[in-house]
Design brief:
The chain has six helices and nine strands. The longest helix has 24 residues, at about 50-70. The chain is of the alpha/beta class. It has one domain (about 5-195): LigB-like (Protocatechuate 4,5-dioxygenase, Chain B, 3-Layer(aba) Sandwich), CATH 3.40.830. Strands 1, 2, 3, 4, 5, 6, 7, 8 and 9 form a nine-stranded mixed beta sheet that branches. The chain has helices at about 5-10, 50-70, 120-130, 160-165, 185, 190-195, and strands at about 10-20, 25-30, 75-80, 90-95, 95-100, 115-120, 140, 155, 175-180.
Amino acid sequence: MASSKVSTLCAVFLVFNLTRVSAKIVASFIMPHGGIALDPRHFNTTNSTAKKEAWEIHNACVKVRQQMQQLKPDLVFLSTPHGVADLKNFLFYLNPQGQGHADTDNCQCPPCCYSVSVNLDTKMSADLVKSLGLAKNVSGLSAYGPPEQSSEPFPLKWGEVIPLHFIPGLNNTKAIILSQPSRRYTDDVAMIPELL
């Protein structure tokens, strides 16, 4: 796998502990968002190496879950390359809650149903949109209601659900979700400075 493609294949977590006046990154993780990470038992392959690698991916995600459980973060920042995408801008999700489901690569829901519900930090997301704004190709997106106030959850799919699935106590942790623009498909190398 080419290293220039890594940013288009993984979700990135930054894990924060917050106080009233400061924030500190306490960990960061690069997580897969493919269904085999959820449950490799349903990986439909006869290739024993591929099956072994799928279990390694799953077990690594379980280790991240264990580390997150020890860290007890106040906030999780998820950057996803496969969320709702604008053509040009990076988008912060601005609904108070996100909710969705995903299934594994070879087992549909049901029986392989994986759902998450997460509280989104809309104030911090809106503040980031204001401070980064158009100069950095950053905007916000709300679904089914006004920003920061919609009573409907923001729709999530596998690009958010699979990495979030591995966060323990998700209902006690707030998240910020940033999606990457769809120009990542054609301008992935040119986007490296922006991603940094």
